[in-house]
Amino acid sequence: MANKNNKKVQPQPTKPKNKWLQLGVKVACLLGIVVAVVAYTDKKEYFVGDQTNNHSQRKWRSFYKFIDKKKDVDILCLGNSHASAGIEPYVLSTNNNCYCFILNTPGSGSVDLYYNLIEVLKYTTPKLLIIESSCVVGSGTLGKEWAKIQSIESKRGRWNQLTLIPRYLPSDDWMKAVSPTIRNHSFLLKDPDRIAFNRKFVGKEKNPSRVPLDLGRFSHGNTGLSDSILRMYDTQGSPYTRKYHVIEDETKRYIHKIYDLCQEHHIQMLFVTVPMYYRTYEAYDELCELEQEFFDELPNARWLDLQKDYDPSIYTRKAFNNEYGMAQHNTYLGMLINSYYICEYIQKNYAGVLPDRSNDPRWLKDMSSDSYFQTAHQAQDKQSVLRAMIGYYLTH
Amino acid sequence: MLFNSFAFALFLPIVFVLYWTIFSRKDVHLRNSFLLIASYVFYGWWDWKFLFLIALTSFASWGTGLLISKEGQSEKRRKLWLTLNLVLNLGILAVFKYFNFFVDSFCTLFHIQSSLTISIILPVGISFYTFQALSYSIDVYRKEIDATRNWLQFFAFVSFFPQLVAGPIERAKNLLPQFSTIREVDYQTFRSALLLMAWGFFKKIMIADRLAVFVEGTFDKGASGLPMVLGAVFFAFQLYLDFSAYSDIAIGSAKLFGFDLMTNFRRPYLSTSFSNFWKRWHISLSSWFMDYLYIPLGGNRKGQWRKYLNLLIVFAVSGLWHGASWNFVIWGVLNVLFMIAIDPLIRKWESPAFLARSVKALVIFVCYALSLVFFRAKGFDTAITCLTNLGWYNADTLTSFGLNMAELKLTAWLLGGLLLLEVLVERFGGQLSAYEMIDAIIQKIPSLIRWALYIALVLSIVYFGQYGGGNEHSFIYFQF
After folding, report:
1. Is A35 near chain B, with CB under 8 Å?
2. Do B290 and B354 contact (CB within 8 A), yes or no?
3. Pick from A325, A323, A330, A317: which is nearest to A272 by CA?
């Protein structure tokens, strides 16, 4: 008989550790620490790129500031760099007694146009939407990756930005869009000076607005086409060849979505083609037909083509930036000429659509406090600008 | 779906959790069904239309296995079924991979102008899964394994996603039985699998992809002098690290689901002869060719000259397996020539000393790196230009090929560290791999330091990896 005192206490079977929980907690901890470190360097902005030329950010900041003051945008211009280099919002504003805003994204395309319009519609409903047509025609009109990311980052609200990422970008680029550290970590080896620079400016605005009210203009250069650039058209031919005569299906889809939005919100839609130097195109007439065919699918939209048969006595070589390529921009002079043509077109075709703010003291103050000569960095060339303006009025 | 893509980073955890929580409890059929669907999603992510091709290959090999093993079949009939399966599978491979190549070569040879070439996309991983499926039907024919009646099990075996697109090319006798049992996996296996995957990503993103930038710069821009020498050396390391990284991630991913895949690389650049090298490099393919081509051709049983001829055939076919280009064939043939010419010389120098082994390894590496110039260059003429451009001049232009001095230094340190590790493992690790030795050491250190190392490994990939800004590189062997 076993002695009670000697009875061995049977060890209770230990409950096996939950391997799932153990693994899950450890992996979560590891990832949590890594995410925290990345979030820290994101917050400190050590890895942000050069912000001094970030047009998108500056324009959207200005737009939100404008909206916060309970003002409305009457004419909204969307597009890529051709929009901001080809349209002078002050001219459109002052000639139509309304507010005109350019919210373009350089290098971007139709996806961006659509989501920019959606963002604007959260705050204000423009009466007229102008789309510069170069982001409709050609390959790559869905926009460049960096431009899309810049546009996303310019929008207000972190959640808003995060929800835009999957709409703009393929899944492999999501992390790059979420985190500047992931995107620009190569600065550590490639550009340590940028990190040193960013560290100096922690918490400070790196891209302050240059003017009290930035309506989105940005003009390129002011010298006009030089002889050496003109010679390139002789030696190399027209850079905008027939192979770029396409309208991508995705672009068509997004333009249709924009059109539907405009119909829904009773917004008039106008496509504007700002001109490039005529020899840029190999066969502009053919491109024109392609565009016309597409625009015909949008019965309530109009198209103002400033490229076709432009008057070379007005659009002299000084109206075009000194660059050779399929993306050639206007000088400030060219921009002004375009803008007066657009104003004339609006007055003829959209009479009564836009509100008259000429008696609104806030509008008067905004327009008088920021003359376009004063703020255009091409102001050195005032004389040729004035000559062009006088020439325009004399011929019209 | 690439292993180094965001889609895979979401796909793997979702499949892992569903697998272990719902689909892998008791029912092996349910488990295999889920794995098959997951594998088809993985493959179809690239192009769903090619799923029909992989299904056809699977069905043909599975059906052939059943027909061959049917009772009362005559030997002649068995052979006929096998031949039909070989013709079908190799025919698909020939059409998708080699049709244009053979037409072009034929026309060039006979100076014929032809417009017979077809515009066709090469299905990712076709060479890998075709060989895996073929090995099954050959093994059934040889009566080395029994044919499986379970189609689900077989389809899951052919398309098992961790090794579907770039191997290791598994044998049915190793992998197929793993689909018929439910396996319990413990915490240590999970931990070890994750660490192996992290090690693979480290090799791929930290080293191989950075080497790729310099290699692209030198090979595609026609570098000359020292940059070309460095380009050739870097490509040898890039290929090794890229492919072994893929294999590590594949083996690690399979481990997460309770499957064991074969080792594909065993420190090949420390080989002391070419015959030894091919037992360490892309082991799953080398052994496939050994078992299904070299030995059936007679191997080394029919005299020296026949052995050389057999080797020549095997390596030429192996070169062609890599891609439809004469450059790959030249690469294969060069390796046979090295084996025939250099191995006997090396064997004469019988010294176990470290220095002797190092010199031998260096000779093997240099020869192999030179042969890889044909592997990397686009076209025969380009390869010859690259080889003639080798030299010791232009040292001052090293930073003109995509990497600055800081990046080159980091790359050199990482390569040096990796080589040192491999030497240590070779010397002290026995049959362990570099990763296994790291794992063994890591397990012995205090948990706080171990955790610091894990975090440092992941952070180093995040902050110093070569990715983002258009720097993503697909795995090299995906193209085969």
Report:
1. no
2. no
3. A330
Is the torsion defined by CA of B299, B302, B307, B311 positive or negative? negative
Band of pLDDT at residue B116, cut at 50, 70 and 90: low
Cα distance from A55 to chain B (closest Cα, Å)?
20
CA A86 to chain centre: 14
In whole angstroms, give the CA distance from residue A297 to residue B222.
Answer: 50
Distance from CA of A214 to the nearest CA of B (A): 30
Per DSSP, A97 falls in state T
Q: Measured between CA atoms, how close is B237 to chain A, in angstroms? A: 21
A186 contacts in B (CB within 8 Å)? Answer: 466, 468-469, 471
Tens digits of per-residue pLDDT, B346-363? 888 877 788 888 899 999
Cβ contact A189–B410 (<8 Å)? yes
Token reading at A110: 């139709």
The yes-or-no answer on residue B322 being catalytic is yes
Q: How far apart, in whole angstroms, are the C-alpha atoms of residue B154 and residue B171?
A: 12
Six-digit token pair at B358? 């190092």
Task: List beta partners, residue B390.
Answer: B225
Per-residue confidence of chain A (396 residues) as pLDDT tens digits? 444 455 555 555 555 557 777 778 888 999 999 999 999 999 888 888 877 778 888 889 889 999 998 889 999 999 988 998 899 998 899 889 999 999 988 888 889 999 999 999 999 999 999 999 998 887 777 778 888 888 999 999 999 999 999 998 888 888 888 999 998 898 999 889 888 888 887 767 766 666 677 888 887 766 788 999 999 998 998 999 888 898 999 999 999 999 999 999 999 999 999 999 999 999 999 999 999 999 999 999 999 999 988 888 889 888 899 889 888 899 888 888 999 999 999 999 998 899 999 888 888 888 876 544 444 444 445 555 555 565 555 555
Compute and round to an integer the Cα radius of gyration of chain A: 27
Per DSSP, what are the bridge partners of residue A102? A77
Residue A222: burial class (beta carbons within 10 Å; 0-12, 13-18, 19+): buried
**Cross-chain residue pair A34–B190, CB shorter than 8 Å:** no
Residue with tokens 């791999």: B433
In SS3 terms, B89-154 reads as HHHHHHHHHHHHHHHHHHHHHCCCCCCCCCCCCCCCCHHHHHHHHHHHHHHHHCCCCCCCCCHHHH
d(CA A82, CA A90): 16
Do A34 and B455 lie within an 8 Å CB cutoff? yes
Residue spans of the domains in chain B: they are: 6-182, 189-474
Pairing mode of beta strands A128-132, A100-102: unpaired
Give the global pTM.
Answer: 0.83
Half-sphere exposure of residue B81, counting CA atoms within 13 Å on the CB side? Answer: 21
Q: Which of A18, A19, A165 to probe by mutation at the B interface, max B CB count within 10 Å?
A: A19
Total residue length of chain B: 480
DSSP A327-349: S--B-HHHHHHHHHHHHHHHHHH
Rounded distance, CA B160 to CA B128, Å? 12
Cα→Cα distances A103→A79, B169, B260, B273, Å = 8, 54, 56, 66
Name, in order, each residue with C-beta under 8 angstroms of A205's C-beta and a sequence gap of 6 or more: none
Is the CB of B471 less than 8 angstroms away from the CB of A37?
no
Q: Give the pLDDT confidence of B349-398 residue by residue, as tens digits.
A: 877 788 888 899 999 999 999 999 999 998 888 999 999 999 888 888 89
**Cβ within 8 Å, pair B471-A22:** no
Q: Which residue of A172, A178, A194 to mutate against B (max B Cβ within 10 Å)?
A: A172
Q: How far is A66 from chain B (nearest CA, A)?
A: 34
Check B459 against A186: CB less than 8 A apart.
no
